[in-house]
Design brief:
The complex is a heterotrimer. Chain A has a single domain, classed as Up-down Bundle (Amino acid/polyamine transporter I), CATH 1.20.1740. Chain A has 14 helices and two strands. The radius of gyration of chain A is 21 Å and the shape is globular. Among the domains of chain B are: about 120 residues, no CATH class; about 170 residues, no CATH class. A five-stranded antiparallel sheet of chain B has the order 1-2-4-5-3, sandwiched between helices. In chain B, strands 6-7-9-10-8 form a five-stranded antiparallel sheet, with helices on both faces. Chain B has a two-stranded antiparallel ribbon with strand order 11-12. In chain B, a hairpin with a 2-residue loop joins strand 1 and strand 2. In chain B, helix 5 packs across helix 8, helix 10 runs antiparallel to helix 14 and helix 10 crosses helix 15. The termini of chain B are far apart. Chain C is α/β, with parallel strands linked by helices. Chain C folds into two domains: about 210 residues, no CATH class; about 170 residues, Nutrient germinant receptor protein C, domain 3 (GMP Synthetase, Chain A, domain 3). In chain C, about 30% of the residues lie in helices and about 30% in strands. The longest helix of chain C has 30 residues. Classes of the chains: A mainly alpha, B alpha+beta, C alpha/beta. Chains in contact: A-B, A-C, B-C. Chains A and B meet through helix 5, helix 6 and helix 12 of A and helix 15 of B.
């Protein structure tokens, strides 16, 4: 029996989108600028996210079968395309190192007070390298196995807090007390780029879906579902902790889940939450990693599987090196990254692609209609 | 010096009586056809059998034909030999001579009409047949010999299988004789489309292997793959289906079995009806089923004979037990060494008080106890039956208790280890629990170095490994991943039999629908007034 | 097995169940920890030794002290199971900001411990009083606080996040329960105390403390604490209400009705009318009669209705008196009317946010109580009635 070519199914795509978007966003607080209206910001952000996703898919659908990098080559020619690909490779690798760093910081602040970061980053990258040695479909199937548990735990956290009586819905009020301004502040530039803009990595994956028919619908529903889960998470955080504590908490969902206390026995379950975030992180870092690897594949013309181990170690190394301390890491993430990295890579260049694609495909259509 | 490819003979049932096609191979000292001279042939035979003590010859005379009956006394039933072969021959001795005796066909028709037979043209064939319990009748000046199937030696009677016991359901188990086993399957599936194909495996042992399947249901690609893999079996001797398993698995470097085995005819028959292929080996009561996926190892045939609520519950318990066996000891290590916050306070204080004075770190404690348990378990299996049972149960508890009192381990540890050991027996198939037992040790070590993070990391790696395994091309974790909605009816819960209408889609069978749609069973409708009772 | 940086065997740790903060003599704080001696808690290994051990150190920051305790104690301390934080009155009056940040920031402390203010004796003494039913003083107190809050409403079981949120928010001020000791603390520190049927030294609940931001400004008695808890969805409590008929003269013996509140829900509101702040409290609840000393016939509807009104009046009076007392004496909004205003009229709240406590002190109060009296136990008429009748004959 031959091993089949890498293909993931639509259901796996749906799951990957959800795990990806939730990956770090559910854990780190999003929308903090909007205070108690953060959940409104998330809902609006979801709508934007769907639009962004559909735009990316639209670009892809014009030139079927090609992934993002092949699109560059198609539009801009070999050399410019390869150069852009290289930029994106660096971008994707950098972001995967960042996300991994987020997770390492989480573990080290809560559980492993003394363990050095390298241990966590190396072990996580080993797992991710192992996944990609087998191929993308293994990532798809693994997430199929874990997906129900990840979602179930997020939902049960909410229910657990509710049954423990720690929900104070009044914390959500006053709704839109200060108007829409804080909401908008939260959306641009932070929420649009994180987590919704990061869907650009799916432009690399979407080329490898088994059935191409319903990709747009499924992706949109995927973003919608992740938006619902994120809103749910935001509501839980605000209701349980109150705006102020949530703002000041580095990992608000974790702090919220510490409130669960059922039957005097099921208490202190926040560690379990950490581990379900862990899986989301693996998916997220994995997909960015895969994006980078595919780009490298285009540039060097070597199969990406041969590069997993060296690149993996590179990322594990960078995870530790990119920031000296937690504050630097956070500030980079809030100030430097959205403006200088996310906006051009997620929006700038794709927008640039649009006229080129339309032009080139119109030429093709003309050729076809004339022949 | 054994660089010879193994014998590969396939007999087509349509061609009974004629010389079957064979691959001609080299084996030193056997001429392709045997001599017309009887003496020379007999001499060659004796040489071939290396003067073994169970080689027997009886000289006969049919008319004026000289002949010989050769057989291996240990491979056939002597009384049958007497009745079916020697008696008619004695009668033949008294017959007047006629010309027609020159034909061996005539001899056969006249004297052995009721016995199944084959003809042999080469000494190789005759040797093979004698090894299989045939009695050879060689006549002088004939270039064909008659081989009569006399039936085999004593075999074990059909009894309850020792390894896969159930409470409700048929209690027959397979025996070592392959024909009896096939008979047991045929009793369950009375269908001409149930086909058995024969193979020989083992260069030196020449063991008979048969595959069974339902023609018209089974997927032909998988079938040809099975045939291919069997033909590639390259070993000196194949003594049990376990050997076969190692040859035909997609991957050997894995803890998890990729081939299902069972000692029970109903289990095998059920699987054949689903579209899978059974592999039987002469001499082994364990029959293999391919292709098999992860979830197959959590199913017991009893599941289908008991009410479906109960079995759905038990299935879930089985999966949970697997997880418990796997993770319970490592969770204990992780929580007591890294994650004290996770426990409720009274429990923590309790545990602490128990561990007072225990000299070893939790990890060493657990590893010691686990190893002790494994040793006990293995010893319990090997011990003679009279001693074995008492010793293993009592031994485990007593050793545990004694260790606690000696201050070597803590009480709660004995509970943890004992419970996870017992949980490992819930899986109906024995060689699956081995996977859990082995991985458990690795998990304990991971838990000791990285706590819960280490455990989860290893579990993810295990899932990745499982997900990348394939059994005859089918992903091992089907239908969980890739998720097939239709197949969910028999995995974690069991849908009642009248609802279970489809064969598993991942087998890509040719007959995916088992039964037509019919309404579920319900009570007969009564007329108002209960007239029915009076009728 | 390399890489075991964070490994701590159970043998190497001691669980801390209580922490006490007193003002230090030489340094800023004086901290006492109460650590469990786990051998005493196991059934087989208990030898009658002290179930907990305490140790005191002085220092400038609690976080440093929490790691320094091994100066006197054997094992590493684990704070994740701390149940009670005792703050002495003096420290509370001086402001608790100083060490609350450490508690919130450290991952080890969870949110499920109670904060109590101690009065009468230094906080450290409270960690040493033994009690036979629950060997660890802090566990005993923690269970006790839970039970009291549930059964009668005598302690505002305040936890860390609530406390901190109340400090920061301008619309509410924090509170904390208070505890005192009766008896001889010296005798209470030994295991012998446990052998006494009525222990020599005992820790008991003594009302609550009122804070303005992070400084303690006053205290309320046990009954007033119950009054406060009405504004926090008081779950159960028992009331003794005078039920003599109104025409009786004051020389008669007083008879009381014992009512038990089964559940109650409160709605707090605040609004501005003509630039005057108005605050209102609405209570909804259910009650049942647990005992009565009055001879009224409980099978009659009008008797039930009368009793209902009595209960409602009682509660209304209690709440009104309490809120007025807090308004007049302390002038701090501990109830959360400010937050209600924020929710109902965000703009106005933003205007008065910075002086809300003053606004609160002069706000007009309106209390509405609606109690449903459901049932009267398993008997209907009281045998009091029969005695009364017999007396009259």
């Amino acid at each position: 029996m031959k091993q089949q070519v890498e293909k993931i199914s639509l259901w796996q795509l749906y799951i990957l989108i959800i795990c990806f978007q939730i990956g770090s966003a559910a854990l780190v607080g999003i929308g903090n600028e909007a205070k108690q209206d953060a959940w409104i910001a998330v809902i609006i952000g979801t709508l934007f996210g769907i639009a962004i996703m559909l735009y990316y898919l639209f670009l892809l659908s014009k030139v079927p079968g090609k992934n993002l990098f092949e699109l560059f080559v198609f539009c801009f020619g070999k050399w410019v395309g390869k150069f852009l690909t290289l930029l994106y490779v660096i971008y994707f690798f950098y972001i995967s190192a960042r996300v991994l760093r987020d997770f390492c910081e989480l573990l080290v602040s809560t559980i492993f007070e003394v363990t050095p970061l390298e241990v966590i980053s190396i072990t996580m990258m080993l797992v991710i390298v192992y996944i990609f040695q087998h191929g993308l479909e293994v990532l798809g199937r693994t997430s199929e196995v874990f997906f129900p548990y990840v979602v179930a735990f997020i939902v049960m956290t909410g229910l657990g807090i509710w049954f423990s009586g720690e929900f104070e819905m009044s914390n959500i009020q006053p709704i839109l007390g200060d108007g829409f301004k804080p909401v908008l502040k939260a959306l641009f530039p932070t929420m649009i780029t994180f987590p919704f803009g990061e869907a650009i990595t799916f432009m690399v994956i979407s080329a490898y879906i088994g059935t191409k028919k319903n990709i747009k619908k499924v992706s949109a529903v995927g973003v919608l579902t992740s938006g619902i889960l994120l809103t749910y998470g935001a509501v839980i955080q605000i209701a349980t902790l109150g705006v102020d504590v949530k703002d000041r908490a580095n990992f608000p969902l974790l702090s919220a889940s510490r409130e669960i206390s059922l039957l005097n026995f099921i208490e202190r379950v926040d560690l379990i939450i950490v581990f379900f975030v862990m899986f989301g992180i693996i998916v997220k870092v994995g997909i960015f990693f895969y994006g980078g690897l595919k780009g490298l594949e285009l540039i060097t013309n070597k199969p990406y599987r041969s590069m997993t181990l060296p690149m993996g170690s590179l990322i594990a190394f960078f995870t530790v090196v990119i920031s000296h301390n937690f504050v630097e890491h956070i500030e980079e993430g809030l100030v430097f990254v959205p403006f200088y990295l996310h906006i051009p890579f997620q929006f700038g260049i794709p927008l640039l692609l649009l006229p080129f694609i339309l032009w080139k495909t119109r030429k093709k259509q003309k050729k076809e209609s004339s022949s | 010096m054994s660089s010879f490819s193994s014998l590969f003979t396939r007999r087509k049932n349509k061609n009974r009586g004629r010389i079957s096609q064979k691959e001609i191979y080299d084996k030193e000292g056997i001429p392709k056809h045997f001599d017309l001279n009887l003496e020379k042939n007999l001499k060659s035979m004796q040489e071939l059998f290396n003067q073994t003590s169970d080689y027997e010859e009886i000289e006969i005379k049919i008319g004026d034909l000289k002949g010989c009956v050769c057989y291996l006394g240990t491979t056939l039933n002597k009384s049958e030999l007497n009745t079916h072969v020697l008696e008619p021959l004695r009668a033949a001795f008294k017959q007047p001579k006629t010309e027609s005796h020159k034909d061996i066909d005539y001899v056969r028709e006249a004297f052995f009409p009721a016995v199944s037979y084959k003809y042999g043209e080469t000494l190789h064939q005759l040797v093979w047949q004698m090894l299989n319990g045939y009695a050879i009748i060689m006549l002088d000046q004939h270039n064909r010999a008659l081989a009569l199937n006399i039936g085999g030696t004593d075999k074990r009677s059909i009894e309850e299988p020792s390894t896969q016991t159930i409470i409700r359901g048929p209690k027959e188990g397979f025996v070592e004789d392959i024909n009896t086993n096939i008979g047991l399957i045929r009793k369950k599936i009375k269908n001409p489309r149930l086909v058995f194909e024969e193979f020989n495996v083992g260069i030196d042992s020449n063991t008979q292997l048969k595959i069974g399947y339902m023609k018209g249901i089974v997927n032909e690609d998988i079938l040809s793959e099975v045939r291919q893999r069997i033909s590639k079996i390259n070993a000196s001797g194949i003594l049990d289906t376990g050997n076969v398993e190692e040859f035909i698995s997609d991957e050997t470097f894995t803890f998890f079995p990729l081939v299902f085995n069972s000692e029970r005819p109903d289990s095998i028959s059920g699987n054949i009806l689903e579209g899978k292929i059974a592999i039987l080996l002469d001499g082994s009561p364990f029959v293999l089923i391919v292709p098999s996926v992860f979830t197959d190892f959590f199913q017991s045939t009893e599941d289908y004979y008991q009410p479906f609520f109960m079995t759905s519950f038990i299935r879930i318990i089985r999966y949970m037990s697997f997880m418990i066996t796997l993770t319970f000891p490592s969770l204990y290590v992780a929580i007591t060494t890294y994650h004290h916050e996770l426990m409720p306070t009274p429990l923590l204080i309790n545990l602490q008080s128990q561990r007072e004075g225990v000299p070893f770190p939790a990890v060493i404690e657990i590893l010691m106890m686990e190893l002790t348990f494994e040793v006990l378990r293995e010893a319990g299996v090997r011990m003679p039956r009279a001693v074995g049972q008492t010793l293993s149960i009592v031994g485990a508890l007593v050793i545990g208790q004694a260790a606690v009192e000696a201050g070597l381990v803590s009480n709660v540890l004995v509970v943890v280890v004992a419970f996870s050991a017992i949980a490992s027996f819930v899986s109906p198939i024995y060689n699956f629990s081995i996977a859990a037992r082995l991985i458990r040790f690795i998990l304990i070590i991971m838990a000791a170095s990285l706590g819960l993070y280490g455990i989860l990391l290893l579990l993810i790696i295990m899932v990745i490994h499982l997900v990348s395994l394939r059994s005859f091309g089918i992903p091992y974790l089907t239908p969980v991943a890739p998720f097939k909605m239709k197949d969910q009816s028999d995995i974690f819960i069991r849908v009642p039999i009248w609802g279970d209408r489809y064969r598993p889609t991942y087998l890509m069978t040719k007959a995916p629908v088992k039964t037509k749609k019919s309404p579920p069973p319900s009570a007969p409708k009564q007329d108002s007034g209960g007239k029915k009772e009076n009728e | 097995m390399t890489g075991c940086w964070d490994r701590e065997e159970l043998d190497d740790i001691s669980v801390v169940t209580g922490m006490a903060v007193d003002p230090g003599e030489e340094k800023k704080y004086r901290m006492t920890v109460e650590a469990i001696n786990s051998a005493e808690f196991g059934r087989q290994s208990a030898q009658g030794d002290a179930p907990v051990l305490t140790y005191t150190l002085e220092g400038d920051s609690l976080s440093e002290l929490s790691h320094k305790m091994n100066v006197g104690l054997t094992r590493k301390l684990v704070f994740s199971h701390t149940r009670v934080l005792y703050i002495s009155e003096e420290v509370a009056k001086g402001g608790v900001f100083g060490f609350l940040d450490f508690l919130e920031r450290s991952g080890q402390f969870r949110n499920d411990f109670s904060i109590v203010i101690t009065s009468g004796y230094p906080a450290s003494e409270f960690t040493k009083i033994t009690y036979p039913v629950e060997k660890s003083p802090s566990l005993k107190l923690s269970t006790q606080i839970n039970a009291l809050t549930e059964e009668w409403g005598g302690n505002p079981d305040v936890q860390l996040y609530d406390f901190i949120t109340s400090i920061i928010s301008k619309g509410i001020n924090p509170v904390a329960g208070m505890i005192s000791m009766r008896g001889d603390p010296e005798k209470g520190q030994t295991v012998e105390n446990n052998k006494d049927l009525s222990p020599d030294a005992l820790v008991y609940a003594d009302g609550m403390a009122v804070f303005k931001n992070d400084k303690m400004v006053g205290r309320l008695s046990l009954e007033e604490t119950r009054g406060y808890l009405w504004t926090k969805d008081l779950r159960h409590t028992s009331l003794s209400i005078k039920c003599n008929s109104e025409t009786a003269d004051s020389s008669e013996e007083e008879f009381f009705l014992d009512a038990r509140i089964i559940r109650s829900k409160v709605k707090l509101g605040a609004k501005y009318q003509n630039d005057r702040p108005k605050i209102n409290v609405k209570i909804n609840g259910e009650a049942k009669i647990q005992g009565t000393q009055c001879p009224n016939d409980l099978t009659k509807i009008n008797v039930f209705a009368e009793h209902e009104k009595l209960i409602e009046k009682f509660i209304k009076d209690e709440i009104t008196q309490l809120i007025i007392k807090v308004q007049k004496e302390y002038g701090v909004d501990i109830f959360g009317f400010g937050e209600s205003l924020n929710r109902q009229d965000h703009k106005k709240y933003k205007e008065v946010e910075n002086k809300w406590d003053k606004e609160f002190a002069k706000a007009e109060l309106d209390v509405k109580v609606d109690i449903q009296l459901l049932r009267a136990g398993i008997k209907n008429k009281s045998f009091n009635a029969d005695i009364e009748e017999r007396n009259q004959e």
